[in-house]
Description:
Layout: E1 2-4, E2 10-12, H1 19-57
Antiparallel strand pairs: 1-2
Amino acid sequence: MASPNSGGITIKAEQDSDGSAQSTADMTAFVQNLLVQMQTRFQAMSENIISKNILIKL
């Protein structure tokens, strides 16, 4: 069963005989990817705020 989340990423539940290990690996990869995306967006927003503050002071 696959279900999309609000970020447009599809989460797929594994139902193999070794489903628990595969599901854990998939969830780990998903969370790591999500954290990278959050860090990238946070960094971009921070740089945008800093550059606007510099322009305002000029």
